[in-house]
Design a protein that fits this description.
homodimer, 620 residues, mainly beta, Nuclear Transport Factor 2, Chain: A, Beta-galactosidase, Chain A, domain 5, 3 domains, 19-stranded antiparallel sheet, 4-stranded antiparallel sheet, 7 helices, 32 strands, 7% helix, EC 1.4.3.- (chains A, B), Amine oxidase (chains A, B), Cu_amine_oxidase_C_sf (chains A, B), copper (chains A, B), Cu_amine_oxidase_C (chains A, B)
């Protein structure tokens, strides 16, 4: 259940003081194996629309579904036998329920989960102790194991030594070279305000921030104040991680199906737990709760799910120094940003998602990965026993293979640069040659603007040797100089999916076939893997929508960007992986008339906090 | 003049208490247009070797060369005429002396500089007020203008309104939405020590840090302490920015030559000025001086050229949360890093270079760009006057074109992973197909290790759709599991040079033909564009060396990585550009037996500083 958003134009037209727009709920219900899509007017309490989905896929899994599947699996008699064959009882196991993907007709007509079990003996980090080759396919609605497969009885359960990652106060040895306490301090408090629990105002920015059970959190109505005029100018209507795709590169019976679409299957918000103060977010962070809905429709609170903080990381926002005849110029301005953060733990993996706002108009979106590898047990305990690289990943501990996998996170970015109607422009850097005689040079790069007329023009595979900038501009809003107002999406590190387009996981996650797409705004096209993602067949993806090849010039458009990671594990990822992060940016391009932070003031010593060590730290 | 480094093996063999190795100086002298390469034993004061360079190129330019060229240009009679034609006198001008590149035989046998002039009337930011089309070619040694070209008398000098970037205390208007004071605080002081002015020890790291007139700074003898054994383990012998390449994409008479190689031409250290406290570096920074040599051989001090500080940016080093039947697990560890930083102002542009050390063994190297665009004046003051995109960049202010250009920074990384002899291994992610019948999957990625035998195997053009990891491993040092100890270079955002390989600028900077190269260690191969870079013909580049195709397996190897930026300017870059940064990483891969920060302690409130607002801030 979620809000049934009012029509975008009505939202944009609404002003403070106007009567509230009708409040409606959107409910996805499951009844007799059918997905019901229902909108309800909350004022009248009446059903407004009711549709039964005719496409593939089921609603997001609930905690109850997961619990039911695990319950069915652990009470299945074969499990006791398999556990005993490995010297364990079922009570020693911790079982999890990954989604099954979708691999063909025999999986239709029922909701399935795969259940995998691990030994929890001696460690809270059971993920490092798989019962390899054991996989139970559970019919979630019938609460029944419909397939039991155990091909791994000869494979030992990895030992699990040194896998406990918890801090044990008083018992853990002192650190080898402890770092003196360091902290981001802001004793006058934060410079942002949060109104009505969701409207954030900071420096030149204003936006709405809302926890969402599926997306994690949604940033909307992003507005920046013009540095010259003070005018509030629209940048984005709505942005959020629309879908994930995490295919594992192992085709064994117990592995082939691992191709998660975590937002639509489990929910990035549903799996987000309270952030850990001082360690997930700094001391000056403000925390916000999520209000979610349980399977029976009752609301519940996910506390401290989002944190919001100002960051000063010691960098400069601009600088120049120069020694001239008359003077020494040394000018620099410290960079302070605002970060909105949440962290989802989708089973073993942790995804931390940041939206970072800079005073120069740039928005940086970062996805950081940590948590536990999904590992495979092997009979081998040394690489010298492994011939022909036949394992599907490197050995990361005795009997433990870190299976190679990818992560893709696709963002829905409904850009409204100075208004809804925008145009996507590729600025290609084209090599000009054949300059004979005119110049001693033989080549140079020329920026050539290419306006995307239809969706096809806006499908982009990034290439180092065919570089472009990717602008979303408002052709009706020209600067003093005649440049269209714009924002560009700036890729940084990235990875592409290389799977066959006909491979079922890739077909379902075909939104990763390109890194960039632009579609015309369509209220129903929010979720890149389809509204009903779980066990979907790939009939409602961004790729399908884009192939309608609609016109997108000077229209209300949505930009989609996919951030990818290839992960070849290594020993350092065991038993918990150091954070790996990648980012992309949304950056003003001829949006402001000039550098909007030209007039920022430098930092002076006299304004900075006065600090002393804590008594505890002094005593150390 | 610089240190003539002792033989690497003698350095590695030296231990504290041993007699010092012989101290020698390496002098590059210019006499009668010839470059003399001289080594001098400092103990005996005797010349040890003396060679006259037979290759192309001249030594790095000195401040005296630059001053001489500008002096010759401003006293050239034609300049007064050109200035007068624009309503100015020579006293109103500020002239700079970019390097001329090298474009053929007629430029041989003399040292040249191009002198360009700007109006400094009304602004310290003269870069925004070019006398377009005016270029003087100066013979530096004869102190004589040998070519005077003024093709731009009809082009107005841009007005320069709002280009002053200085802070004027008391006169500048208050900021629109000031941010409450925020600071990185560490009242017990830093956790690092600096011994003998250059040996840095922090957490598990130990390295030498030295200012260098050409490279900016050099990081050497990088050692990390093993998290299990406490052993000191070598990671890198020496790392530094070896050369830059900054080609402009305009082939006009006054522009074609702009293809700077800033390290070898002007020196990244020679152009580094004192960092601005609290704005370039945070309050807890420690500053280090550079000791350089002037043209006459006398030493001088470049104060506060390097800063070193611990950073806490509010991020976590690892995290996992989980709700299990028995307990709620919420574990996260705050990330604190050590940053070494310098900033060079090579004329208009500012390059800030960071080496950031993480406790998990990762080294992140970042180049940040700020400062002023090199702009071109135009008769147009609105984009609607410009047809067919005929300008060489976007209009960024009235009559000002921001010419498109690239920046490449090539790092010399003499990796010594657990010792000098290392092997470069590409771990290619190869798509496996044709799995019919064996699995419901149709494809997966398999990591395939490819050992580079010779230099040719190690020339890498990055490609999103042909992904690899790039490992430097020590084949003789295996982990408990049999994996070779290694570090990988991890690219992030990057850009490639697309110029013709035969274009003179590209020929001279052929080290940018690939993003990664590996060469066998050779004491004389330090500077990717050649030892004598200024006016070089490209006969002594990394590309030339690599094409000897030497063996590199299990040898002492040097890794070269090039970080690139395409810069299509925009209005926001005027009159000073907000910082743009890109990074790459050196990351342990099976170097540690497990996550080396598994046992890091969390941060507790009781240990953090106690802070109050300053009196100045409270009064605001």
């Amino acid at each position: 259940m979620t809000i049934d958003e009012p029509d975008k134009l009505r939202v944009l037209g609404w002003q403070s003081g106007d009567p509230l727009l009708p409040r409606k709920a959107f409910v996805i219900g499951l009844l007799d194996n059918q997905s019901h899509l229902v909108t309800i007017d909350l004022e009248s309490g009446r059903v407004e629309t009711h549709e039964i989905s005719s496409g593939s896929g089921y609603p997001m899994l609930t905690m109850e579904d997961v619990a039911a599947a695990v319950d069915a699996a652990v009470s299945y008699p074969g499990l006791e036998v398999s556990a005993a064959a490995r010297g364990l009882s079922v009570a020693n196991l911790s079982c999890i329920s990954p989604s099954p993907g979708w691999f063909g007709p025999e999986e239709e007509g029922k909701r399935l989960l795969k259940v995998l079990c691990y030994s929890k003996q001696g460690t809270p980090n059971f993920y490092m102790r798989p019962l390899e080759g054991l996989v139970m396919t559970v019919d979630v609605d019938r609460r029944e194991v419909i397939k039991f497969s155990d091909t791994g009885r000869g494979i030992p359960i990895p030992g699990g030594a040194n896998t406990d990652y918890r801090f044990h106060p008083g018992n853990d040895p002192p650190e080898m070279n402890p770092i003196n306490p360091i902290s981001m301090e802001q004793p006058q408090g934060p410079s942002f305000t949060v109104t009505d629990g969701h409207l954030v105002e900071w420096a030149n920015w204003e936006f709405h921030l809302k926890a969402d059970q599926r997306a994690g959190f949604i940033v909307s109505r992003v507005v920046v104040r013009d540095s010259e005029t003070g005018d509030r100018r629209s940048v984005m209507y709505k942005g959020f991680p629309s879908e994930l795709f995490v295919p594992y590169m192992d085709v064994d019976e117990a592995w082939y199906f691992k191709s998660y679409m975590d937002a639509g299957e489990f929910g990035m918000g549903a799996t987000a737990m309270p952030l850990v103060p001082l360690n997930d977010c700094p001391r000056n962070a403000h925390y916000m709760d999520g209000v979610f809905v349980s399977a029976d429709g009752r609301p519940f609170i996910q506390p401290n799910m989002i944190c919001l903080f100002e960051r000063y990381a010691g960098d400069s926002a601009w600088r120049h120094t120069e020694l001239t005849v008359s003077a020494e110029l040394r000018e620099a301005r410290a960079k302070v940003t605002l970060v909105a953060r949440m962290a989802s733990s989708v089973g073993n993996y942790d995804y931390t998602i940041d939206w970072e706002f800079q005073t120069d108009g740039l928005i940086k979106i970062t996805v950081a990965l940590s948590g536990m590898l999904m590992v495979k047990a092997t009979v081998h305990d040394n690489m010298n026993q492994i011939e022909n690289q036949e394992e599907t990943g490197p050995m990361v501990s005795e009997n433990v293979i870190g299976v190679v996998h990818d992560h893709f996170i696709t963002f829905h970015l409904d850009m409204d640069v100075d208004g809804p109607n925008n145009t996507f422009v590729k600025v290609n850097l084209v090599k000009e040659e054949n300059l004979e005689g005119k110049t001693p040079r033989k080549s140079y790069l020329k920026p050539v603007r290419h306006v995307a007329k239809t969706e096809e023009d806006a499908r982009v595979k990034l290439s180092l040797y065919n570089p472009s900038e990717f602008h979303v501009v408002n052709p009706s809003r020209r600067s003093r100089l005649g440049n269209p107002s714009g924002y560009k999406v700036v890729p940084e590190a990235n990875a592409a999916s290389l799977l066959d387009h006909s491979d079922p996981p890739q077909l379902r996650s075909a939104f990763t076939n390109n890194q960039i797409w632009v579609t015309p705004y369509n209220r129903s096209e929010q979720w890149a893997g389809g509204l009903l993602t779980y066990q979907s067949h790939g009939d409602d993806t961004l790729d399908v929508w884009s192939h309608r090849n609609r016109e997108i010039e000077d229209k209300d458009v949505v930009l989609w960007y996919t951030l990818g990671f290839h992960h070849v594990p290594c020993q350092e990822d065991f038993p918990i992986m150091p954070t790996v992060a990648a980012s992309f940016q949304l950056k003003p391009v001829n949006f402001f008339d000039r550098n909007p932070i030209l007039r920022a003031h430098p930092v002076f010593e006299k304004d900075l906090p006065v600090c002393r060590p804590s008594e505890s730290a002094s005593a150390m």
